Amino acid sequence: MSAVPSPSARWPQRLVSTIRSVSGTAVPSFRPNPARRSTTMASTQTQTTSTGVQYTASGVGPEETETPKKKTIRGTYTAAIDQGTTSSRFIIFDKEGQPQSSHQVEFPQIYPHAGWVEHDPFDLLKSVQTCIARACEQFVDRGFCLEDIKAIGITNQRETTVVWDTNTGKPLYNAVVWPDTRTSRLVHELKRREGADGLLERCGLPLSTYPSSVKLMWLIKHIPSVKQAYSQGRLSFGTVDTWLLYNLTGGIDGGKYVTDPTNASRTMFCNIRTLEYDDYLLDWFGVKGVNLPKIVPSSDPDEYGFMAEGPLKGTKIAGCLGDQSAALVGQCAFSPGMAKNTYGTGCFLLYNTGTEPVISENGLLSTVAYAFKGHKPMYALEGSIAVAGSAVKFLRDNLGLIKHSHEIGDLAATVKNTGGVIFVTAFSGLFAPYWIDDARGTICTPPLPPHALSTTNLFPRSHTVVGMTQYTTKSHIARATIEAVCYQTRAILDAMEKDSGTTLTSLCVDGGMSNSDICMQIQADIVGIEVDRPQMRETTALGAAIAAGFAVDVWKEFHELKGINREGRTTFIPHTEVSEREAKFARWTKAVERCKGWVDNDEAEKEGEEVDDNR
After folding, report:
1. Cβ distance 272 to 263 under 8 Å?
2. Helices 578-594 and 517-527, interaxial angle, to 10°?
3. Calpha distance 450→461 (Å, rounded)
4. Is the pLDDT of residue 174 over 50?
5. CA distances, 175 to each of 11, 119, 158, 190, 216 (Å)
6. Could you say which enzyme class this protein belongs to (predicted)?
7. Would you state the pLDDT for residue 70?
8. Residue 245 banded pLDDT, cuts 50, 70, 90
9. How far apart, in whole angstroms, are the C-alpha atoms of residue 160 and residue 412?
10. How far is CA 383 from CA 191, 231, 255, 347, 468, in A?
């Protein structure tokens, strides 16, 4: 097996590559120099950030200096950094919650081994700075004023683990991303350790490959530079929000080293009730001595600092929410009993449980919904699905069944059903409510008569076969991929009903897959309740902007937001009978049983040891 090159060897080449936006527009190549501060270019209007992102301080490039000024549009705006698993966005919202400017950039995914997912931390930072620069240029070009942006909020992929040298501010390894499963064997060992059964009650999360805790343990054990930094007391840990905040506010030159409760509660280091680091948990995971960010309110005017460079230099950062909590806020689900489902790279259903955490007995997570300064923290039950939009990307990039992600709905609509195919998209195991770490992606078909059996079937006479028949088309696979997300959502809703004692009558949705009418109709047909989709579906970014706006009095009370993003909503009504839904869900449940036990933990551990040997 080939060695995994060290990040320090890989970054210089990776950082000069061209980043392309989702729209296909190329962003100029940059040559970052992390040690360099903002400098003036040949034109006094063009400057460069510390990672090499060029921007125009006035929003007008040198070639446009002769263009007559447009009429200035004044108003009140908040902005949001939305750093996701596959792309970053920067969106500027008006007070009514409508986007006025935005930019999105994809960044490379790194897959060193099967089940491993990494990001270059500098790619995350540079993509954010690029989005800010381009969105601000667009904002000014449309006649708006940057000084009218009152505050910035940050929302981010959760659990993803970044480690860096406290003294230099430089990463010690690539970010280990939330669906990464290299810790499978470690998790199995930890589950046998004394005290494992009590972790859920203390921190709200079960042991799995999902949270940051086991990722950090793995890095300390297997990466020499991380192990050495830990032993010398210079190992800084953070989730993506902390990494971005630290760098955007100055890095080693006084950057803020903070996180918020919605992110801290995903590490397994934070007590779910006190919202402070728990010494017992730190001892149990063996990470006491690692430098940890200060936990501060999700909405706060003072704790997050100011932008240190770029077109928004001096603008206050005033809010921070993990992406799924941000989507809950963006859907204005401020009352207990309200819920939302976000279809992103993964799929995440949050149910507001009020001011007290509810510890699930049915495979769900207890998490912090949001914690605004001056208000009691609000909690949520969460069901996390590891694979949603990433399964569509798999069909596009790995199998070539579609050219663009948005084609998945149209392809699925060409057939009335899946032709009996069930696709359990367990690429990273199965998360809530199953928590099966050793599951892997499995395609199942129903039993067929002897004359219809295909040579592609691995076990033709079993009740459920792994493989496909000659009847199966790419349309069936596309529809089965959508149904996989919808069935897992149904399983989570069932678990939430058991934990809360309440049955939802409608489900608010957002995220990429929610753009497809056929996807949302399939979801309504599978869960048997109405699905409510907003017209403006950037609710994750909107939630971060709301958090920032609350901190600086753009809004002062939650009731002021009752009209936010309410126009143009679409409701999908289920068209299936109860008996049909139950029969299909029973078949899905059988398929889940077939996907278990495909991971050899000894092999996973062997790959981890090979990283040591090659460094």
Report:
1. no
2. 100
3. 8
4. yes
5. 13, 5, 12, 22, 10
6. transferase
7. 64
8. very high
9. 32
10. 21, 37, 34, 8, 30
Residue 201 and residue 434: Cα distance in Å, rounded? Answer: 18
Closest CA to 354 of 374, 323, 340, 333: 333
CA distance 382 to 579: 27
313-335 pLDDT per residue, tens: 999 999 999 999 999 999 998 98
In terms of C-beta density within 10 A (0-12 exposed, 13-18 middle, 19 or more buried), how is residue 559 classed? exposed
Q: How far apart are CA 304 and CA 296, in angstroms?
A: 9
Query: Helix, strand, or coil here: 259?
Result: strand
Structure tokens at 338: 């309200």
Strands of the sheet with 87-94, listed across from one edge: 99-106, 87-94, 77-83, 149-156, 317-322
Position 232 scores a pLDDT of 97
At 140, which helix (H) or strand (E)?
Answer: helix 121-141
Residues 551, 527 contacting (CB under 8 angstroms)? no
Token duo for residue 463: 């009740």
Q: Does residue 520 register a pLDDT over 60?
A: yes
Query: Which of the 8 DSSP states describes residue 171?
Result: B
- Rounded Cα distance between 475 and 319, Å, is 43
Give the side-chain half-sphere CA count within 13 A for 615: 19
Q: What is the pLDDT of residue 58?
A: 54
CA–CA separation, 214 and 212 (whole Å): 6
The answer to which of 64-68, 205-209, 268-272, 352-356 has the lowest mean pLDDT is 64-68
User: What local confidence, expressed as pLDDT, does residue 610 receive?
Assistant: 54
**Predicted confidence band at 34 (pLDDT cuts at 50, 70, 90)?**
very low
Interstrand relation of 506-510 and 87-94 (parallel, antiparallel or unpaired)? unpaired
Q: Which residue has the higher pLDDT, 115 or 267?
A: 267
Q: Helix, strand or coil for residue 303?
A: coil
Q: What pLDDT score was predicted for residue 599?
A: 63
Please report which helix (H) or strand (E) contains residue 48, including its range: strand 46-48
Q: Which residues pair with 610 in a beta bridge?
A: none
Do 294 and 258 form a contact (C-beta atoms < 8 A)?
yes
H helix and E strand count, the chain: 17, 24
Domains and CATH numbers, the chain: 161-237+261-295 (3.30.420.40)
pLDDT above 70 (res 459): no
Q: Which residue type occupies 352? A: N
